[in-house]
């Protein structure tokens, strides 16, 4: 009985800590996205920019690895039994991609006008990477070309 109580306490503690850390991360992402709202990032086959207008170009990238907490992995395992959306993994991928784009923007020089040809790569890593229907941690990487245009 005592070990069952300890297990329940750990599950509840995992739920509240995971939720708190996720909300804290989303708050940080939202604040930093507001700071970079004037730096557009685009992906297009052709871009109408004259080469003589480009003052500087530089490869920029940002990567992040984010892990899911055990509580959400338990819920995702239950979802795998019944099927449907796995919201805990959706928020994991969303946070990782947004954080990677923010880190890419933070690496760009201060006078960057625009980041072009942005690409996003996502992969599962860790001990659960090759197991079917399980995700422990994911890595997201964003990269592109930062351009500084002459004014």
Automatic annotation (TrEMBL):
<comment type="similarity">
    <text>Belongs to the UPF0145 family.</text>
</comment>
<keyword id="KW-0812">Transmembrane</keyword>
<protein>
    <submittedName>
        <fullName>Heavy-metal-binding domain-containing protein, UPF0145</fullName>
    </submittedName>
</protein>
<dbReference type="InterPro" id="IPR002765">
    <property type="entry name" value="UPF0145_YbjQ-like"/>
</dbReference>
<feature type="transmembrane region" description="Helical">
    <location>
        <begin position="6"/>
        <end position="22"/>
    </location>
</feature>
<dbReference type="InterPro" id="IPR035439">
    <property type="entry name" value="UPF0145_dom_sf"/>
</dbReference>
<keyword id="KW-1133">Transmembrane helix</keyword>
<dbReference type="Pfam" id="PF01906">
    <property type="entry name" value="YbjQ_1"/>
</dbReference>
<keyword id="KW-0472">Membrane</keyword>
């Amino acid at each position: 009985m005592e070990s069952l109580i300890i297990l329940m306490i750990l599950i509840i503690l995992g739920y509240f800590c995971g939720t708190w850390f996720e909300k804290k991360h989303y708050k940080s992402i939202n604040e930093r996205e507001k700071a970079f709202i004037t730096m557009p990032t685009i992906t297009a086959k052709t871009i109408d920019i004259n080469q003589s207008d480009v003052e500087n170009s530089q490869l920029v990238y940002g990567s992040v690895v984010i892990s899911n907490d055990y509580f959400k992995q338990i819920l995702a395992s239950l979802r795998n039994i019944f099927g449907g959306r796995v919201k805990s993994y959706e928020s994991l991928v969303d946070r990782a991609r947004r954080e990677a784009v923010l880190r890419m923007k933070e690496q760009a020089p201060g006078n960057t006008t625009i980041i072009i040809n942005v690409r996003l790569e996502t992969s599962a890593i860790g001990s659960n990477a090759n197991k079917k229907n399980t995700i422990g941690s994911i890595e997201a990487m964003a990269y592109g070309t930062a351009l500084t245009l002459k004014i």
